[in-house]
Amino acid sequence: MTVEYNELDGLSRPTSSRKRHSGCGLAVVTLILFVVTGISALVVWKVCFPSGGFGGVFVDNGALAHHYPPPPPHTEYAAVARYIIHISDWATLATISTHANITGYPFANVFSISDGITSNSTGNPYFYLTDLELSVHDLKADPRASLTASLAQSSYCRQRRLDPQDPVCAHVILTGEIVKIKNGTAEAAAAQQALFSRHPEMQDWPQDHGWFVARLAIRHIYLLDYFGGAKVIDPQDYYAAQPF
Amino acid sequence: MTVEYNELDGLSRPTSSRKRHSGCGLAVVTLILFVVTGISALVVWKVCFPSGGFGGVFVDNGALAHHYPPPPPHTEYAAVARYIIHISDWATLATISTHANITGYPFANVFSISDGITSNSTGNPYFYLTDLELSVHDLKADPRASLTASLAQSSYCRQRRLDPQDPVCAHVILTGEIVKIKNGTAEAAAAQQALFSRHPEMQDWPQDHGWFVARLAIRHIYLLDYFGGAKVIDPQDYYAAQPF
């Protein structure tokens, strides 16, 4: 060892300096590559799956991020409908407009929803509403409404490179009436917990806005899932199913 | 040097092996950290911004991913509305239902849209439709419709941890009539280019479905952007504005 170092350092320097400590250099490079690869993989993993694990669906609603098991098989229509509603932190609500210049027109609007805490799906999409809200103006005149949510809102379609209008990027359409839930009831407490758990900032929204909890009472369900046209799902089957 | 190595290797080994090659070790550790940090930053950058650059908004519609400049200041209402429609690859359309058991109800449904190729916003949300589609059944009876798109569909709200119902996570509601665009016209060609450029799989959709291009003829615009309630935007101002 000693002689070898002396030779390399002073007496018989190789033509290429890269060969100088070739054994040690290779080990260091290998070590660096190993560490870099490992940490890079970890970083990518944590960025892509902040809640851990492959094989599931990742939802980032802005306020919170969640990781869910993969969706049910596409032929389990009721379960797929429940799955999409459960993992969706927001959805679009259609009402009949009462607003100037568009009275009687359909009216699409975005709302944060929750059908339960992430580990408990009820199938009931709950809303946190105020009489000041545009769609609530409509609902006071006509409670009929329709709600749609899509797997395009999660990592599901993105990872599979599915266009949002591709039938394999499933979406569900619930239609019925919006029902205001009476304060002080068990359902109001559970609904508020469901909403606040997935939308923590709701607790800090202006106190003078008169927020209340509401639910879509589901009359009709369409599932756009896979090819062959929309599937109609009986609400009873929907409630009997489990998302996972 | 020689003596030092000999001493360390055999005669006067230090109590901590970490001190053995302290100068060299520190340099290697520093080098590894430098490389690891650099590569990790690059990986995170590429994962978060596949199309490059901070300060903008990233949209991943599943089929394609795009990076856009940041939104206009929130007080430039018309420009913000144009921005949200331009960067949105999909949106939710409300119609008046003609379907069994929910006839006359509002009806919410998801569609892929494009108001132009990514570098050219027209402000006109274009659709690729077929008479087989549920909402098109409705539109044939009543062309009135409303379309909503939200910054919650992009990286904008996610990166700022904004709840989708937070007014700072802006969304726009366009209401009007859906107009079928005649094949062979310049508008049909441009609309098809706008749609296919952002939804390449549309070109491969079943030929026997009778796809056609349609546009929402905008009558009324609400922008939910920042606090203080919805802003009504004159369609003329909307068309005169530029998203960036």
From TrEMBL, chains A, B:
The keyword Signal applies. GO terms for cellular component: cytoplasm; endomembrane system; extracellular space. InterPro entries: CREG_beta-barrel, Split_barrel_FMN-bd. Residues 1-21 are annotated as: Disordered. The chain crosses the membrane at residues 23-45. Keywords: Glycoprotein, Membrane, Secreted, Signal, Transmembrane, Transmembrane helix. Residues 72-239 form the CREG-like beta-barrel domain. Pfam families: CREG_beta-barrel. Its main location: secreted. The keyword Magnesium does not apply. It is found in: Secreted. It comes from the Eukaryota. Belongs to the CREG family. This is Protein CREG1. The lineage of its organism: Eukaryota, Metazoa, Ecdysozoa, Arthropoda, Crustacea. The gene is LOC108675971.
